[in-house]
Design brief:
The structure is a single chain. This protein is of the alpha/beta class. The chain has three domains: 22-123, Fumarate Reductase Iron-sulfur Protein, Chain B, domain 2 (Orthogonal Bundle); 137-232 and 374-446, FAD/NAD(P)-binding domain, CATH 3.50.50; 247-369, 3-Layer(bba) Sandwich (FAD/NAD(P)-binding domain), CATH 3.50.50. It is built from 18 helices and 14 strands. Strands 3-2-1-4-14 form a five-stranded parallel beta sheet, with helices on both faces. Strand 6, helix 14 and strand 7 form a beta-alpha-beta unit. The longest helix is centred in the last third of the chain and has 20 residues, at 427-446. The N and C termini lie far apart (60 Å). The structure holds flavin-adenine dinucleotide and iron/sulfur cluster (SF4).
Length: 447
């Protein structure tokens, strides 16, 4: 188990947040690519939501054709570099690699992908030519993985694109959500600059589309509109004491950490509430910020956690401990948080039941809510005809934008993809869906 000293400088922060998948040298990439069996009907391709031709790009790396490798990757996934670093490859391509069947380490596909794309981003080499201008204009709301991927594909199809982004930087959660030991701001933004220079879409920063006035303007000025706004802030738990000083959303904590690095205030005793990937990230990051104790508290058992097991393992290796089958009932403290009162649960027929009299208090000075992100329902309800998921059996899914197989909403001018549609999955899913949505828009514009 790692023990981290509280970082007091940028250098110490960089040490604690050492990249999980460091860039490969040319020699490493050569040896690793030599191991690939270039399988026929390769399972790694089928496991990739964007269907990258993995054996081909690995062979291109092996033949020292990095530009060709990067082109193969980008043809399928415009977030090729980000995904090489942040994708849960253990669950996707690398998890499907045939080497797993022989108990041999799978090919490090993610690192090879990052190796090839980093080279081409650094060289600024132009790999793609945009499509013949069609004279049609598309507005994209949000410059996250979904919005930018849709913009790149629309430019390949010859349409003009203006992106309206609420914040001052592109790349969405890649710059304010994903753990910094997976992808740094510089890496994420360099890829965005590379794509923007290559495809020439316009991005209007600090321009949130927040109501009818902006929507009217977009509807009048554009032939189609793509919604790639992702989700909202952390949902509240609805228990007493949540407003105390020291309680914050795990997502907001990660965002602050990505901006302020070692200057981010982190408690000595941190409790992270939740069992999803965001909760695991927040726990791993609190450990790396030198918290003395970090406890992940989840209301069910370990096997029912939403987080990938490798993310839970990483949180444990970073120094976190876990409390299972507990429900928080109150955040305690006088102004600032001093602890969380929990009640123990048992699960009967899939339902959680509190065990009467089993309350206990876990002291802490910081609480991070890994309770999932809300949806941007207020904005979406102002778009006439756009239908939201309301009947979903799973409460968390309510408020997702309903789309058809072309990612078109019930208002034919509006298309949508990414977290706002799938409820929050991975960068690679947003990139894959948005590419398909761009083709849906293209078909709509051609009609
Ligand atoms: C803490 C955390 C860690 C994660 N870690 C990983 C990981 O390790 N690997 C992985 O693959 N995935 C990870 N994910 C998931 C991944 O980041 C998302 O699935 C992906 O970013 C979704 O892309 P998107 O474009 O749909 O939404 P977002 O990335 O949220 O982008 C939406 C963009 O729209 C902008 N926007 C929002 N509202 C408006 C508006 N009204 N007007 C204009 N602009 C607007 C936002 O500012 C943002 O730039 C993580 C998510 C979280 C929360
Ligand atoms: S499954 Fe593994 S060995 Fe086969 S092509 Fe894919 S990466 Fe190479």
């Amino acid at each position: 188990m790692a023990e981290y000293k509280r970082p007091t400088s940028e250098q110490e922060f960089a040490q604690n947040f050492h990249p999980k998948k460091p860039l490969m040298s040319d020699t490493e990439a050569y040896y690793e690519s030599s191991r690939c069996l270039y399988c026929y009907d390769a399972p790694c391709i089928n496991a990739c939501p964007t269907g990258i031709d993995i054996p081909t790009f690995i062979r291109q790396i092996n033949n020292d054709n990095k530009d060709g490798a990067a082109k193969t990757i980008y043809e399928s996934n415009w977030f090729g570099h980000a995904c090489g670093n942040v994708c849960p490859t253990e669950e996707l391509c690398e998890g499907a690699c045939v080497y797993n069947n022989s108990d041999v380490k799978p090919i490090e596909i993610g690192r090879l992908q990052a190796h090839a794309t980093e080279k081409v981003i650094r060289s600024k080499k132009r790999l793609f030519i945009t499509g013949k201008p069609t004279g049609r204009k598309v507005a994209v709301i949000g410059a996250g993985p979904a919005g930018v991927s849709c913009a790149c594909e629309l430019r390949m199809l010859g349409h003009e694109v203006d992106i309206y982004e609420a914040r001052e930087k592109p790349s969405g959660l890649c710059v304010y959500g994903v753990a910094p030991y997976k992808l740094t701001n510089e890496e994420a933004l360099d890829e965005m600059t590379y794509l923007q220079e290559q495809f020439g879409f316009n991005v209007h920063y600090n321009k949130p589309v927040s109501g009818r006035t902006e929507l009217d303007r977009l509807e009048k000025g554009y032939d189609a509109i793509f919604i790639g706004i992702g989700l909202g802030g952390t949902s509240s738990l609805g228990i007493p004491g949540e407003d105390k000083k020291g309680v914050m959303g795990a997502l907001e904590f990660v965002e602050e950490l990505r901006n302020k690095h070692h200057l981010t205030p982190v408690g000595s005793k941190v409790i992270v509430l939740g069992g999803g990937n965001t909760a695991m990230d927040a726990a791993s990051e609190s450990c790396r910020m030198g918290a003395e104790s970090v406890i992940i508290a989840y209301r069910r058992g370990p096997e029912e956690m939403g987080a990938y097991s490798f993310e839970f393992d990483l949180a444990k290796k970073s120094g976190s401990k876990a409390l299972f089958n507990v429900t928080p009932v109150e955040v305690l403290g006088n102004g600032s948080v001093t602890g969380v009162k929990f009640i123990r649960n048992k699960t009967a027929y899939g339902k959680i039941e509190a065990i009467p009299g089993s309350e206990f208090v876990e002291p802490c000075d910081m609480v991070l809510l890994g309770t999932g992100q809300g949806k941007q329902v207020e904005l979406l309800e102002q778009i006439s005809g756009v239908k939201l998921d309301q009947k979903g059996r799973i409460l968390d899914n309510r408020g997702r934008i309903v789309v058809n197989e072309h990612y078109q909403t019930n208002n034919p001018k509006y298309f949508a993809a990414g977290d706002a549609v799938n409820g929050g999955v991975e960068v690679v899913n947003a990139a894959a869906e948005a590419k398909r949505a761009a083709h849906g828009i293209d078909q709509y514009l051609k009609k």
